[in-house]
Amino acid sequence: MFQKISFVVLCLMILAGCAISPTPSAQSETLSGQLAYDSAPQFTEAELQQLTESQNEFANAIFAYQAEAKENLVISPYSLYQALSMLYAGAAGETASELRLAMRIPWEDARVHRLVNALNQQILSFANSTDADTQAFELQIANALWAAQDRSFEQAFLDILSQNYASGLRTLDFTDASAASKAINDWVAEQTKQKIMRLADPSMFSADTALALTNAVYFKAAWQFPFNEAATAEAPFTLLNGEQQDVQTMHMTETLNVSITEELTTVQLPYAGGTMVMEILMPSLDSWKDPDALAQLWSAQGGLPELQPENVSLSMPKFRIETPIMDMIPALESSGMRLAFTDNADFSGISGDQSLYVSTIAQKAFIDVNELGTEASAATIVVISEKSLPGGEPLQISIDSPFIFQIRDTATGAILFMGTVMQP
Which of 190, 300, 352, 389 is 20 to 30 A distant from 210 in Cα terms? Predict the structure, then answer.
């Protein structure tokens, strides 16, 4: 018997904080869609389950691609899904079809925006049910649109985003790439409690930049059963190559939900004051060597094994991961989203024409797991730019081998000089 929500999504949905925050940056002007944010969207349980399953499948595909490097990693597929959902609101034609398939959206109509909002509100309801005095956990999510000055956008696009993503539209001068980056990074830092200080890079922007979409999430929670800080000590941790290194290791003895097989050890750690948990899956070292076995562990079809409560003496390392800015385009291309990044992209739902394409999708994430609990944040940016004018980029020619030259009078055709350059 397997649970519906996979480990990857269940852990990383924790990153999807849900205190919707449309607060603008002080450095930019805020415009708005004509529809107010819907704080109580309608949905059916069947629709919400379909959306959750599609997000799980998307999350596992993105995670599997990013995890191939077998390096320390934290991502928020939930944050990426939020940003892509906003982008999807402006996609059309085959570009929209590819986005829908890559995101595993099960419907062809626009209900996904209402249901993304509804899922956020469901998670938010759990946060609101917490006793405020205990401050057991904190969840926040924020979306923003950053538009080039003197540009206009389709009102239907802005309305979808204001109604479902609590997102206004802030204007920036992208020709000043450094200033634009600073405005976006200031906003990201504010939304992530200063845990992510730099997501936007000046290289992402130019005079061709039309729009950027950003999502930021923040989560902080205390364990229901804290580890004993006094018991934390150095203990060996075995690497994939068989070597061991000593790491700071936490200890607790408690009744926890677990599953132990030869291939996989699973432990569920609940957070205080709500329904959030962290689940640890430790494959055997042999399983790490088998790509098919690993794929099954984080496949949407696999899910989690059935967990049983056991009295457990648990030891696990403290860890803190801060990723570099991660380019998410290769992972999305591997999921079938390709046209969006080319001159054949169709985002006429944003601009009213087919002049735009996606030039950047990037994410940065942070997590700190210690004796008291977990703090995590992630931010995603999607940059939408003008396509090149007819003729494309300048043709690159390098004269980097021996060549012949001549000097000629074009009026008469007379050649005045000729020569070769064998070694400049």
Answer: 190
pLDDT digits (tens, 9 = 90+) for 147-179: 998 888 999 999 999 999 998 789 999 999 999
Please identify, in words, the CATH class of the domain defined by 229-319: mainly beta
Confidence of residue 137 (pLDDT cuts 50, 70, 90): confident
Is the pLDDT confidence value at 407 over 70?
no
Check if the beta carbon of residue 141 is closer than 8 Å to that of residue 192.
Answer: no
Split at pLDDT 50, 70, 90, the class of 423 is low
What is the Cα–Cα distance from 228 to 252, expressed in whole angstroms? 6
Q: How far apart are the first and last CA of the chain?
A: 74
Q: Which residues contact 19 (CB under 8 A, 6 or more apart)?
A: 124, 127, 138, 139, 140, 141
Task: Decide if 57 contacts 300 (C-beta within 8 A).
Answer: yes
Give me the pLDDT at residue 10, please.
Answer: 41
> Which residue pairs, CB below 8 angstroms and at least 24 apart, start in 333-337?
334/61, 334/65, 335/58, 335/61, 335/62, 335/65, 335/101, 335/102, 336/98, 336/101, 336/102, 337/98, 337/99, 337/101, 337/102
- Whether the CB-CB separation of 326 and 66 falls below 8 Å is answered with yes
**pLDDT higher for 372 or 290?**
372
Judged against a pLDDT cut of 50, whether residue 18 lies above it is answered with: no
- Architecture of 7-222+320-386 per CATH? 2-Layer Sandwich (3.30)
Predicted local confidence at residue 96, as pLDDT: 97
| Tokens at 298, concatenated | 């984080």
List Cα–Cα distances, 152 to 13, 129, 171, 214, 345, in angstroms: 34, 41, 11, 19, 19
* Domain assignments of the chain as residue spans, ordered by start: 7-222+320-386, 229-319
- The whole-number pLDDT of residue 145 equals 95
Angle at 106 between CA 103 and CA 112, to 5 degrees: 75
